[in-house]
Design brief:
The protein is mainly alpha-helical. It is 76% helix and 2% strand. It has one domain. The protein has helices at 4-37, 42-50, 63-73, 76-87, 90-93, 99-121, 132-136, 141-175, and strands at 57-58, 125-126. The protein has a two-stranded parallel ribbon with strand order 1-2. Helix 3 (63-73) packs parallel to helix 8. The two termini are 24 Å apart.
């Protein structure tokens, strides 16, 4: 049975993760606000011009907004690493786990994250030209924002999970 102190520290770490994610999502809301207030926002144009040669997941119905949000979503893994290193104590979130389950979870996380990274970070495609499910997100600015918020949160959380797996596996190897 866990002690109260262990449970409390774990909840503190979870709060840090959620709070940092909420703060990290604020720029996406700023991009949406810029788009809603002015379709030809200077900020969105600046981001689009500076990142025109990067591969991006865009919507041809709202190119400036989607390009800006896509470029920002590419920062999610970097912010997750920074938050992990500076603010989190990985030992407080990871409890005793069977080594086989830990390795299986690590491999699954690596495969899933690498596929998602390739598809959303290093390839270009238009949501409006894609299949039915992804096309739904490109119809208006709000659904596009929901798509990019979800994408950012997924990359952020999976990167943190991968880092936690690495730390726990390293501790497990060190114990042997």
């Amino acid at each position: 049975m866990e002690s109260f102190k262990d449970m409390h520290s774990s909840k503190g770490e979870e709060k840090k993760i959620i709070l940092s994610l909420i703060l990290a999502l604020m720029p996406l809301m700023v991009f949406l606000l810029c788009q809603l207030l002015n379709n030809d926002s200077l900020l969105l144009h600046f981001i689009y011009d500076k990142t025109a040669n990067l591969p991006a997941v865009i919507s041809s119905k709202s190119i400036l907004l989607s390009k800006s949000m896509d470029v920002y979503c590419k920062t999610a893994p970097f912010l997750a690493v920074i938050v992990f290193v500076l603010f989190l104590n990985p030992r407080s979130l990871i409890r005793k786990v069977d080594p086989k389950q830990l390795v299986k979870g690590f491999i699954s996380c690596c495969i899933l994250l690498s596929c998602a990274f390739y598809f959303f970070m290093f390839s270009s495609f238009d949501l409006y030209q894609s299949k039915r499910f992804l096309r739904l997100f490109s119809y208006n600015d709000y659904s596009l924002t929901i798509f990019y918020v979800s994408l950012y949160a997924i990359f952020y959380m999976f990167t943190l999970a991968l880092l936690f797996f690495v730390v726990r596996i390293a501790e497990m190897i060190k114990e042997r």
